[in-house]
Amino acid sequence: MEKRHNIRIRLMILLLLSIIVISDSLPALAHKVTIFAWVEGDTIFSVSKFSGGRRAKNAQVLVYDREGKQLLEGRTDDKGEFSFRIPKVTDLKIVLNAAMGHRAEWTIPESEIVQAVGLLEKKGGGGSSQPVGVGLSKAEMRELIEDSLKKELRPIKMVLTELQSKGPSLTEVIGGIGYILGLMGVAIYFKYRRKNRE
Amino acid sequence: MHISEGVLSAPVLITGTALAVAGISLGLKRMDYDRIPQVAVLSSAFFVASLIHVPVGPSSVHLILNGINGLLLGWVCFPSMLVALALQAILFQFGGITVLGVNTVTMALPGVICYYLFGRLVNQESRFLSSASGFACGFLSVLLSGILVAISLAFTGKSFLSVAKLIILAHVPVMIAEGVITLFCVAFLKRVKPEMLGGVYGKAS
């Protein structure tokens, strides 16, 4: 009987381990949504996805200001992207409402927006149009640099969105199981004390 | 099927927490000393199951395993799932701490219902009857969970029918998968350790 019991325990451990291994090798499509947003010129871009990479298509996006007033509303496209012009200079809270009670939010601080709007205004106003070196005005120069920076930074921002939506790692899974076993120990301890007292 | 933080309104959260507390205290009372390791193993299985995904539709759904949990543990599946859901919330950011009560109820209550519906049936001599009820147990537990999630979302202004339809349609593959898994678990346990299928108070009282 004792031996049979041992085999059972071993079987269960094996089962658990195999589940872990299988789940690790599968694409980690975790049950969670994330939204990531950034400012680019006068526009705010956002990417929404279920962690692991699946894009949240046709999901509702709501934009709120600092006081919680809704500024605008939209839906993500087939790539889970949604973009809009900066509606107001304030902290913007972007909330994603995907189906079945999934929700995520992302905040863009006012400082970032002020900076973006400030740059635009300077560009619009022309500022000093003194030629710098090769016959370009300062404003034109700034525009050129901004454009190339945007192009360079886009992939990096995309990588950031990827990192944001990483699924749980093996360490977390094993850690969780460890916690459960630890709790089991605690529960046994208390039940054992009560049993002894009786 | 975890509901995220900030979706539900306060009354729903409070009701969910109250129901969960009731279920957990009932479960803890029935948790036998020598059953604790079994509870822990099933809790771990539930904890990991959420990482196994069945990719369908616009969303992603995962295994739940609340049917087999409820079938084997009865009311004790409340504490078992609470622990697993709390760890999922902390480590994976699935669900959240304030919605823990609601999520526990939506997952564990169907398990308890299945326990009462099928607890005796899976123990039947007839092989067909026990396999069929094993499948039905896995299938129904997910279906009921979907309905409970839809009910809790309905109180926050979403229309119940459309949400329920969406959730249930998305989970049809999971229901079938869970049915098959539960069927095999039942068949295996029946051969190896039939007394486990008696449920918690098959032995206790």
Identify the notable features of this structure and list them briefly.
heterodimer, A: 198 residues, alpha+beta, Immunoglobulin-like, 4-stranded antiparallel beta sheet, 9 strands, 48% helix, elongated, B: 205 residues, mainly alpha, Arp2/3 complex 21 kDa subunit ARPC3, two-stranded antiparallel sheet, 7 helices, disordered C terminus
Largest interface comes to:
A-B, 49 and 48 residues
* Class by SSE composition of chain B: mainly alpha
Q: Could you state the order of secondary-structure elements of chain A as H and E? A: HEEEEEEEHEEHH
Adjacency order of strands in the biggest sheet of chain A: 4-3-6-7
| Cα radius of gyration of chain A in angstroms | 26 Å
Mean pLDDT of chain A: 75
What percentage of amino acids of chain A are in beta strands? 25-35%
- Give me the oligomer status: heterodimer
- Mean pLDDT reading of chain B: 84
CATH class of the domain at 33-164 in chain A: Mainly Beta
Shape summary of chain B: globular
The value of Rg of chain B in angstroms is 16 Å
Helix/strand order of chain B, N-terminal first: HHEEHHHHH
**Second-tier CATH architecture of the domain at 33-164 in chain A:** Sandwich
User: What's the CATH topology label of chain B?
Assistant: Arp2/3 complex 21 kDa subunit ARPC3
Helical percent range of chain A?
A: 40-55%
State the CATH architecture of chain B: Orthogonal Bundle
Major sheet of chain B: size, sense and barrel closure? 2 strands, antiparallel
Distance between the termini of chain A: 28 Å
